[in-house]
Amino acid sequence: MRLKTSIWVAAYLRRCQTEGVFGAVRKRGAEEAGAVFVKVALMDGNAMLYAPAPQTVYDDSRPVERLFVPTAQQPVSEPSVEERLIKELRFDPDAWIVETEDRAGRHFLDLAKN
């Protein structure tokens, strides 16, 4: 059984805080199982966006972990990230948006292996 999204987000924000990275929930989604999108603002007008990994990359032996994939390989302009988030919320209004700010681009997420 997967951890509730609200609990995962709270733990993720705590992790960011302990590393000295500011983070906040921009949009609260479904408590139990909402998808989570993480925007990492680089403080220079650019950002990285991390989206939930497709279900096909999950290992059946570890079904509880949450995996993410970057939506681009390099940072993109913040307006581009915002456009993508608007599209995602139109598709899934129960999604969460978490935003962090870190010049180094640290995200503290588990990324799916290619």
Topology:
Blueprint: H1 5-18, E1 22-27, E2 36-41, E3 46-52, E4 68-70, E5 76-77, H2 78-91, E6 96-101
Parallel strand pairs: 2-6
Antiparallel strand pairs: 1-6, 2-3, 3-4, 3-5
List keywords for this structure.
single chain; 114 residues; alpha+beta; six-stranded mixed β-sheet; 2 helices; 6 strands
Overview of the structural elements:
With 114 residues, the chain is α+β, with helices and mostly antiparallel strands. Helix content is 25%, strand content 26%. It is built from two helices and six strands, in the order αβββββαβ. Strands 1, 2, 3, 4, 5 and 6 form a six-stranded mixed sheet that branches. A hairpin with a 4-residue loop joins strand 2 and strand 3. The protein is globular, with a radius of gyration of 13 Å. The two termini are 24 Å apart. The mean pLDDT is 91.
